[in-house]
Design a protein that fits this description.
Layout: E1 3-9, H1 15-26, E2 31-33, E3 42-49, H2 56-60, E4 64-72, E5 74-76, E6 85-88, H3 97-106, E7 109-113, E8 122-123, E9 126-127, H4 128-133, E10 143-152, E11 157-159, E12 162-171, H5 177-188, E13 192-202, E14 205-206, H6 213-222, E15 229-230, H7 232-235, E16 241-243, H8 246-253, E17 258-259, E18 270-275, E19 278-285, E20 292-298
Parallel strand pairs: 3-13, 16-18
Antiparallel strand pairs: 1-3, 1-15, 2-3, 4-12, 4-13, 5-6, 7-10, 8-9, 10-12, 11-12, 13-14, 17-20, 18-19, 19-20
Helix pairs in contact: 1-6
Family: Belongs to the pseudouridine synthase TruB family. Type 1 subfamily.
GO molecular function, one term: tRNA pseudouridine(55) synthase activity
Enzyme class: isomerase
Length: about 300
Amino acid sequence: MDGILVLNKPKGITSHDCVFKVRKILKTKKVGHTGTLDPEVTGVLPICIGKATKLVEFLTVEQKSYIGEVTLGFSTTTEDQTGETVEEKEVGEPISKIEIERVLQQLTGEIEQTPPMFSAVKINGKKLYEYAREGKVIDRPSRKITIYDLFLTSDIKHENGTLKFSFEVSCSKGTYVRTLAVQIGELLGYPAHMSQLIRVASGNFKIDQAITLDELEELMTDGNVDSKLVPMEKALNSLPKLTISDTVAEKVQNGAVLPIPEDLEWDAEYFSIFHDDSCLAIYMKHPSKPGMMKPKKVFHGQDSDF
């Protein structure tokens, strides 16, 4: 049983809990997820099964898309609806659609974020949420992330001194959408937090492909799990693809350092090497030899069980 299962993660459990449950249902140990979702967040969580666990690091870096709801009027310790209130400011007047869309446009592109205290980022060997649970606030470096698309998806609800609206965002790895909700509030002049979030896409995996844990159990009982597993070769479709000849294939299987073909027009961190519709390896640009590429992971070769 090898491939990627697109799970619709339920609310209230961690991504690690999902891995544990999938292991139990499928009766296999080789299971890994491709990017943590907070317990209260639902939606697309690609789960790698069997030999596909070799792909985890490549799928983790892919672009993600979410539908979130931001609430203006108060901020929280966790930057989402689960935290304690930190700051309050009543939203006395409605905010126009034009003003909100202007702010969303301001946050599109490359921006900086400071990881929230309630996150798994490590500082001095300790996770930030561990400091936060001790009541400590630690200085942490900002990081650059990319917001590819950010737009309003709902009506604007103004009631009881708060204002709510939903947005859809496509973003790079490392983006904290709850921090984005706080940034939206700051630009609109109010403390804010993320009140709902669902991941609707992770790379090529979409929410309409996703199945629940209950549906997975039913498929296992009926012996139809394979029908829902995305083949490993297809999972790499988001990477640039280089098709090679028989001669070069043998060199790739031996992990050779090779010249980058001159006709390649893309600039990517990794690219897949295919031969006869089979992915032999994932290569990367050589860090110290311009114009050359080196293997990151060989799937079909002397030292591989892929």
